Amino acid sequence: MAEHTALVLGDQLSHANPVLAGAERVLLVESRAKLRSGRFHRQKLHLVLSAMRHFAAELRERGREVDERRAETFAAGIAAHRREHGCPEVRVLEPHSVAGRERLGALDGVSLQPGTLFLTHPQEFAAWAGDRRRLVMEDFYRWQRRRLDVLLDGDEPAGGEWNFDHDNRRPPPRDRRPPRPYAPREDEIDEQVRRDLDALGLETFGRDRARLWPATHVEARRALARFVEHKLPEFGPWQDAMLNGERWMWHAQLSSSLNLNLISPLECVRAAEAAYRSGHAPIASVEGFVRQVIGWREYVWGVYWLRADDWAGMNALEADADLPELFWGADTDMRCLSDAVGGLEQTAYAHHIERLMLFGNMILLLGVRPDHAFGWFHQAYVDGYDWVMAPNVLGMATYADGGRMMTKPYAASGRYVERMSDHCEGCRYDPKQRTGEDACPYTTLYWDFMARNRERLAGNRRMNMALANLARIEAAELEQIRSRAGDLRRSFDA
Question: 230-234, 340-344, 457-461: which range is least confident on average?
C-alpha cells in the first residue's frame, strides 16, 4: 500500500478518525489565515489550538510520528509537508463544512476519505428523509432511538413515552442554584497557546481566562461523569430556564467536546441511559438529554448537508439591518441581555434558550441580516461551526429559510422572558408594556416585527392568533410602537 499522511482537522480530534488507520504519520496544520478570518472569541481560539496540540501529544505517546505545522494557510502547510516527505498522499476525513470540502478537495495530493464521526452519515439522513413532504425532528429522533437501541424496553420507549417535553419546561427554581461545573486544569501546552495567540495580535472578542472547556479525551470524560452525577437528575425540568448570573444552569457543557470529537455522542447517551437504569436519574431528564444529542444535534447535521446548496443567501423576511454593537458588548439597561452578553464575553457560551430566545429572538425582531447573525454565532461561541449554525441560525432563529425547518418564526415578547427567567425582576423595563420609555424592548420590537411582516406571515396558520391580536392594536398605538422601535435600534448600535 502506498505511503500516506493522515491530515487531522481541528474538529476531528478522535482516535477513531478513519484516516489514522495505516498512516505513516499524522499532520495537523494551524492556519494563521483561518485564525484571522473573523472576530473569534479568544477562548474559542485557545480551546481549538490547545485541543489540537494535546491531541498531537496523545498521538506521540501512542508511538505515532506527528508533524505539527504553523503556516499561513492550510494549503501552504500541506504543501510544505508534502515537499519535506517526498510528496506523500495526504488523506483527510470529509470536512464538516461545505467550504472545507471544497477547499481541501481542490488541493493537489489531498484525497477526501468518506466516513463520519457522527452517528448518522449524510447519506443515511438523506435516505431517511426520502420523499417525505415535511421533515419532522420527532420522527427522526424516534428512528434514531430504534436504530441505535437507546432508551428502549423491548420495542417500546423506556418510561412509556417517546417525549417528556411536557415535564421539561418549568420556570427557573427560586430556592436553589445549579451544581458547580467541571473545571479542567491548564498545563504548559495551554500557556504556550496563550503566548502564541498574544504574539499574533489578533482582533478577538471576549475575555481571556483560565480554560473552562475540555481539551482532551480524558477531560471530556470527566466533564461527562460530573454532569451525569451532579446535574443530569435535575437537567430535564429546567433545561429551558434562565437565572441571572448563572452561566451553566443544569447543562452538560459537552457541546464543544462533541463538536471537536473529544468524546462520542453514543458514549454520552449510554452514560445517561445507565443513570436511568440504575435509578440515579429520572426518565424525563435522561430522555431530554438523549433527545438533544442523538435527536436535535444529529438532525441539524443531517439537514445541513441535505440543504448544503441552499444556505447561502437565505433571507425569506428580507432582513437588512446590521448586527448592532449590543451583541459585541455595548451597554444596555436590559437586565436579560446585559447578563447574557456579559456571560458570553466571560465564557464563550450561552445555553440553547439564551441563544434562541434572547439573542436569536432579538436578531429576528430587529431584522438583522441572516448572514451577519450567522457570522456572529459562528465566531462568538466556543461550539460554533458552519454545520451547527446554518440550520440553527438560518433555519430556526432568523426564519431565513421561510419555514422549511420550523413551522413559524421564533418571535416572542418580553412576557416569555418573564415566564422563563428571573431577569425581569429588578429590570427597569416592563414586559407587559408595548409603548413608552419603560416598555420592554422585546415587547415593543415584537409588535413592530409583526406589523412589518404582517403580509409575509398571513398565510401561516400558526401565526393566526398573533396576527389577530395585532389587528386589535389601534393605529395610533401602532405608530408609537414603530417609532419606539426605531429609537431602540439606534440605541442598540450606539
Answer: 457-461
* CA 236 – CA 164 distance, rounded (Å): 9
Residue pLDDT, tens place only, 462-479: 999 999 999 999 999 999
pLDDT of residue 2: 61
Compute φ and ψ for 203, nearest 5 degrees: -85, 110
Under a CB-based contact definition with an 8 Å cutoff, are residues 78 and 7 in contact? yes
pLDDT, tens digit, for every residue of 279-314? 999 999 999 999 999 999 999 999 999 999 999 999
Rounded Cα distance between 355 and 485, Å, is 22
Phi and psi angles of residue 384, each rounded to the nearest 5 degrees, phi first: -85, 120
Predicted structure pTM score: 0.96
How many of the other CB atoms lie within 10 Å of CB of 173? 15
- What pairs with residue 156 in β-bridges? 153
- Number of neighbouring beta carbons within 10 Å of residue 401: 21
Determine whether 131 is exposed, middle or buried from the number of CB atoms within 10 Å of its CB (0-12, 13-18, 19+). Answer: exposed
Assigned C-alpha cell, 424:
425581569
* Domains contained in the chain, CATH given: 4-113 (3.40.50.620), 122-181+215-306 (1.25.40.80), 325-492 (1.10.579.10)
Nearest to 63 by CA among 19, 93, 28, 24: 24
Q: Identify residue 79 by its one-letter amino acid code.
A: A
Quickly list DSSP for 269-337: HHHHHHHHHTTSS-HHHHHHHHIIIIIIIHHHHHHHHHTTTTSTT--TT---BPPPGGGGT---S-HHH
